[in-house]
Amino acid sequence: MQTFFIVAILLLGFLITFQIAKASEYVAVLRGEEKAKKQTNRVNAFMLLCFLILGLIGVYYCNERLKGKILGEAASNHGVLIDRMLYITIGVTFFVFVITQVALFWFAYKYQQSDTRKAYYYPHNNKLEVIWTVIPAIALTVLVGFGIFYWFKITGTAPKGAMEVEVTGSQFKWEFRYPGNDKTFGKKYYKNITGDNPLGQVWDDPYGHDDIYVTGEPMHLVVNKPVRLIIGSKDVIHDVGLAEFRMKMDAVPGTPTTMWFTPTKTTADKIKETGKADFVYEISCDQMCGRGHTGMRGEIIVETQEEFDAWITKKSPKYIDALKAAAAQKADSTKPVTTVSVSGVK
Amino acid sequence: MSDTIHIQPGSVAHEAAHDEHHHGHHEQSFITKYVFSQDHKTIGKQFLVTGIIWAVVGGLFSVLFRLQLGFPGQSFPILETFFGHWAKGGQIQPEFYYALITMHGTVLVFFVLTAGLSGTFANLLIPLQVGARDMASPFLNMLSYWFFFMASIVMISSLFISTGPAAGGWTVYPPLSALHDASEGSKLGMDLWIVAMALFVVSSLLGGLNYISTILNMRTKGMSMTRLPLTIWALFFTAVLGVLSFPVLLSGLILLLFDRNLGTSFYLSDIVVNGQTLPNEGGSAILFQHLFWFLGHPEVYIILLPAMGMVSEILSVNSRKPIFGYMAMLGSLFAICILAFLVWAHHMFVTGLNPFLGSVFVLLTLLIAVPSAIKVFNWLTTLWRGNIRLLPSTLFAIGFVSLFISGGLTGIFLGNSTIDIHLHDTMFVVAHFHIVMGVASMFGMFAGVYHWFPKMFGRYLNTTLGYIHFWVTLVGAYLIFWPMHYEGLAGMPRRYLDKSVWRSFSQFGDLDKMITVVSIIVFAVQLLFIFNFFYSIFKGRKVTSTNPWGANTLEWTTPVNPGHGNWVGEIPEVHRWAYDYGKDGREFIPQTEPIGANESKH
Amino acid sequence: MEAVMNQQQKRMHPHKFTLWVAIASILMMFAGLTSAFIVKSNLTGWRNIVMPDFFWFSTATILASSLTMQMALRSFRQRAMDQYRWLIGLTFVLGVTFIVLQWFGFKSLWDQNIKFNGSAGAGQFLYVIFGLHALHVVGGVIALLVIFLKAFFGKIKLYSSVPVEVAATYWHFVDILWVCLLVFFLAIG
């Protein structure tokens, strides 16, 4: 019923607008077309000017309303660089934005049609054109210079001694792997992936025996310690999006990617800073991955080294779990024996 | 096919003359005149009307998913009535949501802003403005429309199958689009999408071939390349971009089709989907992105350039002043056209692209800002000291420039790989490309429709409705997309249908409501425009003079309702460029007027 | 009007020009595919193939057909219509032979157990690239058939050589394209 009313009101609005519009055409004919045209021209010129003024006020108002809702200070070293680049760009572009928009609407208002004015025949001026080729070119060179400088800093190799975490995306969850005490990940092969071996680790590889697998709980990182994420995917393309750290990298099946950064604020710091008791660093999937894309959420806890050590020592490597599971299965001899390194089920 | 029309000008002129008095001797049946017509003007109108129908469909989709974004969790029973299990309990289901955004993108980018925009105006304007009786090959031109029509049929049919249309985003990245098990939309819907797009590519190639050879080969006497109106130059570069980039998309889609249905490993590698381990190894999902964006980026300019060309023309005509810096405008079009091919990987900064390669693409991408800046400054100078008639077409052209500035500047953010790391795939991107490519090109298209409607149908659109249309759309566009940038600055990813589970992105609830309400209003006003369009075709005020806007270009030397062949008698000869407005104290001097003895040089 | 027409005749015929643009467009498609091939051939898990001999026979056939096509065009220009008819017929037959040979080529690859499914390799690309090329040849064969039928049954009133020239250019194009693709596969695959 409600929708019916809405449709009816819309239709009525349509009809009225249309009738007015049609009538205005007749009125214009009656009053003399030239006169009517001049009047609409004046009205629209005035409205363009109003649009400019109200628009600029709106831009200011919008910024006042929303600037508090974007994510405060960046929580990583790279994030600081990215924010700095962002503010430099905002500065440059906002200046250009205001000048050009004011010129556009002001000219449209100022030079509206009038009987007393004759358009000025002005087909070209090489000097002017050179000026406004060179100035943007210089401004952009500056921006490109800064941009590439920061870009190489951010995408450069991670410092030695950086902690490593492997992140694997799949529809629609995140899984993490820590390399364990040997600081080296064991090999994995996707055809080994089973319920007991969610990442498809190759058990023959001794490096993998102490690898710690984490899922369903936050990834833990150490504050002020560079971390290098090795990112992969099991099925479709996902993306590790870390808005608070300003970092992002696609997770592509078959082609591992990496990114590194140094978290600079612990979760506790952030709780204090934002005043939100439930603050948590989030991992968002930023590349469309199917029906559950919206909910493909992970969490990160940034903490001190001691807290981290306390957490990780409580974890037992997946290899041990797998051995136990295999042993349990062997004991139950009625079931068909499936070894842990079984290859893919097709 | 082989007897081209310009070989027998006599007979065509004869036909055109008959067209003048209705109900003369009908040499053409209804079918050949309106359906399988080879007249470029009719084909242009066919593209326009089909484009409008698609725009309604695509726009409606956006309204539906905006409902979800603005009011997540709220139930709209009417949706269930119409869409059944896609909107169970009156709530848009995730599959439905993703199908909607995918189709919205595909439809608007390809069917409306490529076919509907450049298809319409290239067909209508190229022969009329270069002084030709028709396209180089009217038959291929007709085929171009009918391929588009078939593409439309296939795409529409995909909406009605039980698993729904493609739902992997308009960029259809594999593996999501390649694995039947990864999503409902990757089942039959995706195959239909590929088939429809293949037909569409054929259509735009046939069209593009014709546009290029018509512009280069069939200009009337005296119409040297530097006397062409900027619309024609823009359409020319558009066609070049299309002809060289669409085939690459086609090759990418063919490989995708093989991967989907024949088990090849072009894009697939190391995949376990739904507990199933696939045998594919050695494929590269990123390869598709390269092939896709090699078209995808030029596609942005395929959409934008025609709008730029028409805006240049309309601003000049209605400022009663020559376009400022014709050669610079042309040079910047050319530069944009070249650069468009060299920047595709800026869509892929966070795919693990080699950082050095990334920096090259940053440089090339930001280079595009230079020709764009030249164009903007030249438009501003064109308005400066003009005598501006603020017709709806002019207003839309001014709106285009405003939006192009706003959206172009945010492009400087995204083209810079450093900032792109944070902003990639967020609502900032959505805001950016909707303003600069979506709405701006729409504005160019509206400007073109208001300006050339009298030429198309011999009648005027209702101007009051035109003004209402303009103001609501302009204000609405800014209200919708300006604040959206802030969502992106907060890192809110695009293609999320409900942010309530997120702590970092759930703070924009009120904003999303506002955007939804405004977008519904703007959509309603577009319907008003469409009503105006169809009403005016039949009932609009009749055009009484051949040159209602006092313009210089050749299309205004044809009769009010030109027949097939355009000119009665000879094709006029051209003596000057298209922009002699306000010269030597005369308001305008048509291109057909010989240079006077005492005329000043420009 | 006379002047306008004269000027237009000085330029290249629009249909021929259209063909050249179309050729550029087709080249872009194959450029897309071959560059994909190059990128992928550097990845792990790539499988190479041995080129079946049939592709050599088909190369000889299409080269011969280019020759007969050119001769047909010359006879048309010299108005030697009988000669033109059988030469165009011969070209048509050679074109069909080419496609049949390609089919045997694919079949012998298939029998070597190089199929669509499984991990990436040159074979998968070969089927796609040669297949698409064959489709373009089919297009040319159909055009030849039309011209051939016209030459026999149609009364050629207009002595315009444009359609034949367009067909000939296209035919040489698919010929050269074939040679390039074959060399490409031999060099990289």
Number of E-type strands of chain B: 4
Strand content of chain A: 15-25%
CATH-assigned homologous superfamily of chain B: Cytochrome c oxidase-like, subunit I domain
Q: What's the CATH topology name of chain B? A: Cytochrome C Oxidase, Chain A
Measured as a percent range, the helix fraction of chain B is 55-70%
Strand order of the largest sheet of chain A: 3-2-1-5-8
Quick check: average pLDDT of chain B?
A: 90
- Strand order across the largest sheet of chain B: 1-2
Spans where pLDDT lies below 50 across 5 or more residues of chain A:
335-346
Characterize the main sheet of chain B. 2 strands, antiparallel
Tally of helical segments of chain B:
18
Count of β-strands of chain A: 10
CATH domain topology of the largest domain in chain A: Immunoglobulin-like
* Chain-averaged pLDDT of chain A: 89
Largest interface (CB < 8 Å): A-B, 124 and 134 residues
CATH C-level name of chain B: Mainly Alpha
Q: Just name the CATH architecture of chain B.
A: Up-down Bundle
Q: How would you characterize the overall build of this protein?
A:
- The complex is a heterotrimer of chains A (346), B (602) and C (189).
- Chain A is of the alpha+beta class.
- Chain A folds into 2 domains: 28-113 and 124-155, no CATH class; 163-331, Cupredoxins -  blue copper proteins (Immunoglobulin-like, Sandwich).
- Helices cover 46% and strands 16% of the residues of chain A.
- Chain A is built from 7 helices and 10 strands.
- Chain A has helices spanning 2-31, 33-66, 77-110, 126-155, 267-274, 305-313, 318-331, and strands spanning 163-170, 173-178, 212-215, 219-222, 227-233, 238-242, 247-251, 257-261, 281-285, 297-303.
- In chain A, the strands form 2 sheets. Chain A has a 5-stranded mixed sheet with strand order 3-2-1-5-8. A 5-stranded mixed sheet of chain A has the order 4-10-9-6-7.
- In chain A, a hairpin with a 4-residue loop joins strand 6 and strand 7.
- Residues 335-346 of chain A have low confidence and may be disordered.
- A two-stranded antiparallel sheet of chain B has the order 1-2.
- In chain B, helix 13 packs antiparallel against helix 15 (427-457).
- Chain C has one domain (2-188): Four Helix Bundle (Hemerythrin (Met), subunit A), CATH 1.20.120.80.
- Chain C contains 6 helices and no strands.
- In chain C, helix 3 runs antiparallel to helix 6 (162-188) and helix 4 runs antiparallel to helix 5.
- The model of chain C is unreliable at 1-9 (pLDDT under 50).
